[in-house]
Amino acid sequence: MSQASAAKDIAFLKEQANAVRIEILKMLAEAGSGHTGGSLSAADMATALYFSKMRHNPKDPAWKERDRFILSKGHAAPLLYTVLALSGYFDKSLLKTLRKIGSPLQGHPCSKLLPGVEISTGSLGQGLSIANGIAMGLKMGGMNSRVYCLLGDGETQEGQVWEAAMTAAHYRLDNVCAIIDNNGLQIDGPCCDVMALEPITEKWDAFGWHVIDIDGHNMKAIIGALNEAEGIKGKPTMIVARTVKGKGVSFFEGKVQYHGVTPTQEELKKALEELGENGK
Amino acid sequence: MGSREKKSGVRSQESGVKTPNSGLSTQNLNPTTTPLTKGGKGGFVATRDAYGDALLELGKKRKEVVVLDADLSGSTKTAKFAKVFPERFFNIGISEQDLIGTASGLSLTGKLPFASTFAVFETGRAWEQIRQTISYSSLNVKLVATHSGITVAEDGASHQAIEDITLMRVLPNMTVIVPADGIETKQVIEAIADFYGPVYVRLGRSKVPVVMPDAYKFTIGKAYKFHVGKDANIIAAGIMVSVSLDAMEMLKKEGIDAGVINMPTVKPLDNDTVVEAARASGLIVTAEEHSVIGGLGGAVCEFLAENYPVPVKRIGIKDTFGCSGPSDELMKLYGLTAEDIVRTVKEGLKK
Ligand SMILES: Cc1ncc(C[n+]2csc(CCOP(=O)(O)OP(=O)(O)O)c2C)c(N)n1
Ligand SMILES: [Mg+2]
Questions:
Q1: What is the pairing mode between strands B44-46 and B207-209?
Q2: Which of the listed residues A77, A109, A186, A253 has the most CB atoms within 10 Å of its CB?
Q3: What residues pair up with A215 in beta bridges, in sequence order?
């Protein structure tokens, strides 16, 4: 890719991430419950994956050669639903049904109800093991598809994450690329107060992973890291994305209380203004 | 038991009207206990809120009480204890298996640990840790989980524990308690602190009607008879007690004498009361916000089949997962309303 077209790509992705945030906020305000902070903090990464990096086909969600995305932090369902809708997996109007009776958009993603969701999640700590299994199966089948897995930083307190960390390194799953949404917050407070995680990069490095430490809101850095991961052979890659919970809405940013609280109509209006969407 | 007119005094509490409990049968009451000052005055209380208050009180009285949580202390209400007794509170982070193991270790040093998180994660994620460490060695650990059942609502199936009673009931040495309301929850927390051994307590997220009388005294293994009916008896636990009381009133209007028995201790079951109810009516209906497989309904069926066979109908979630939606709509969708109980009782009586 030429430098000019790469820059254009980045500009497009930034705009797209903004559109993703707008839809997330609208759907959460409509639903009246759901996870705001962690959906917004990971929006740039998910946007980069769905609108640039991943090979996938919204018209054929089960396409064998697709790259896979596992949302291990299942509570960021609004983010997953938004990137799926904006990619064309289903009509955007469905986003309004989030968390309502009969909707395929469950509070946490359900693969049985919604094509495009690889696997149901919501119980933290399980996604990376599943990603590893898929990666092994793909390798066995001679496929070169890649498997992406998004984890919360608090989520990595689950022991299973570290069991999976060993498995991926042991089996040299270089088709696995995990991302930690390192927003520094969980439910009961900052991760460092609840159950300290640092040093994060050193831990993954010690577990045999290729580790890339980036600003998780810098689109160029995100794309750069995803590209770098693709070139790494014999090891899985962990992208530690330093993010801000609630990113994009000034009054949600870095606030622990907006983990599972949705915007009021008034907050929605202000938030949309900040994101440059004025009653469109 | 007192007349059924008197029972209606219980129901009026639900409408938020202040009613002294003088109208209640005192048969199951222990007159030596001081009546609870809070609750019983009508209105709605979430059992998790009652837990938070009870735990704080217990912490003041007993220095050996320690509390552990897994990043949900605001939701489980253990945060109340944590605020007052930070040195006796341990947030283990998002790691339920570690939560259970750490609580076990604390109990081995003579502490009295209460370990809390959502019911799905407490009983599901850490089941084998509970089995191997707590149940097998019969440790004095209190597992108090909140957010059980489908009334977790919008979070959906991943967060709705509908199999936790079964999972805990199958474990040897384990006592399983499902409080009906805030009053009972407070009583249960006090009672299990005085009881040596592993206990699982199942609490909810949503506010539920206060149904137990002020002076009610919970005893492990003892049911509370609101009324023993001649036509049918509904054995219920948790939030289904209040729903069953509504059903009882509706059936009464149709001339059907249905009783309601609150069975807070699912294990060990109050066998005598189950037989009494079966003998009095010949039809038993169980009601729980849980799978019909292996919970209260399962326990009652197992006991009656071997000891006093009578027809039983089970109200509960019929071998399926929950889903996202508002609590009241989910209760309808999964057949857990008073109307569902009324219909089930009538069906049972037809045969
Ligand atoms: C096994 C399990 N335990 C607890 C929860 C409840 N829970 C949901 S989100 C969350 C905090 C997650 O924090 P983090 O992983 O940092 O996510 P983020 O900050 O990105 O929202 C918790 C404890 C859960 N969903 N699964
Ligand atoms: Mg976080």
A1: antiparallel
A2: A77
A3: A242
Round to whole Å and give the CA distance between B40 and B20: 8
Residues A91, A97, A101, A105, CA torsion sign: positive
Question: In this predicted model, what pLDDT tens digit does every residue of B74-124 receive, in sequence order?
Answer: 999 999 999 999 999 999 999 999 999 999 999 999 999 999 999 999 999
Q: Residue B98: which of A34, A159, A188 has the nearest Cβ?
A: A159
Q: By C-alpha distance, which of A118, A229, A45, A108 is closest to B322? A: A108
Domain limits of chain A? 3-274
* SS3 call for B113: strand
Does ipTM exceed 0.90? yes
Maximum CA pair distance of chain A?
A: 52
* Burial of residue B330 (number of CB atoms within 10 Å: 0-12, 13-18, 19+): buried
CATH homologous superfamily of A3-274 equals Thiamin diphosphate (ThDP)-binding fold, Pyr/PP domains (3.40.50.970)
Rounded to two decimals, the pTM is 0.92
User: Inter-chain contact A100–B325, Cβ cutoff 8 Å?
Assistant: yes
Most A-contacting residue of B83, B146, B154, B333 (CB-CB within 10 A), to test interface: B154
Does B155 contact A120 at a Cβ distance shorter than 8 Å?
Answer: no
Residue B45 token pair: 């209380």
